[in-house]
Specification:
With 207 residues, the protein is α/β, with parallel strands linked by helices. The chain has two domains: 79 residues, Methionine synthase domain (Methyltransferase, Methionine Synthase (B12-binding Domains), Chain A, domain 1, Orthogonal Bundle), CATH 1.10.1240; 117 residues, Cobalamin-binding domain (Rossmann fold). A five-stranded parallel β-sheet has the order 2-1-3-4-5, with helices on both faces. The longest helix has 24 residues. 42% of the residues are buried.
Length: 207
């Protein structure tokens, strides 16, 4: 059943994923087992396929929608069983930038891999990143930018996080962003795409 759930998830079959999660719960499977052996491996496989250009953004978005439907069904049981997320990620597009497709993809992939996501949306100032990280007990702050002109804001976020004394790594990404730029501004990590972002967050948290 869990393998079937993975296949349905990768195929983006939302109704099937919901039904399979329901069946798994009815059969007495623990919510954590359904998450860790059904939904998460499905998203991990999808991430690999995305990196290898076997699937593209539209397929990932459809699969992520199916995954969110499965998670919504599981969530009350995970809370009841006191299952802890792998970590809390505060994510947003930096100040002055209104693009969110890449950011949304990263958020979905991280959510599907067992992280709690605090999505700040677009046009997020460094102060707001710091405030959200502090309020939500964040493990990671993730910043996205699509414009070369707004990339400079990432430097401001890294500086603001450094001054906050929170000691939380900042991961950056987006079309114009490079590993060199991440190193130059002192970011904790860099990801060229959504699947790599999941790996990078895991690496930074030692998972």
């Amino acid at each position: 059943m869990l393998n079937e759930m993975q296949e349905a998830l990768i195929a983006g079959k939302k109704a099937d994923v919901e039904a399979l999660v329901g069946r798994a719960l009815d059969s007495g499977l623990a919510a954590a087992k359904i998450l860790n052996e059904g939904l998460i491996p499905g998203m991990e496989r999808l991430g690999e396929m995305f990196k290898n250009n076997e699937v593209f953004i539209p397929e990932v978005l459809v699969a992520a929608r199916a995954m969110n439907a499965g998670l919504a069904k599981l969530e009350p049981f995970l809370i009841k069983d006191k299952v802890q997320p792998k970590g809390v990620v505060v994510i947003g597009t930096v100040k002055g930038d209104l693009h969110d497709i890449g950011k949304n993809l990263v958020a979905m992939m991280l959510r599907g891999n067992g992280y709690k996501i605090v999505d700040m949306g677009i046009d997020v100032s460094p102060e707001k990143f710091v405030e959200a990280a502090r309020t939500n007990g964040a493990s990671i702050v993730a910043c996205s930018a699509l414009l070369t002109t707004t990339m400079v804001q990432m430097k401001n976020v890294v500086a603001a996080m450094g001054q906050s004394g929170l000691n939380i790594p900042v991961v950056i990404g987006g079309a114009p962003v490079t590993k060199e730029y991440a190193d130059q501004i002192g970011a904790g990590g860099y990801a060229p795409d959504a699947a790599s972002a999941v790996e990078e967050v895991g690496r930074l948290l030692g998972l």
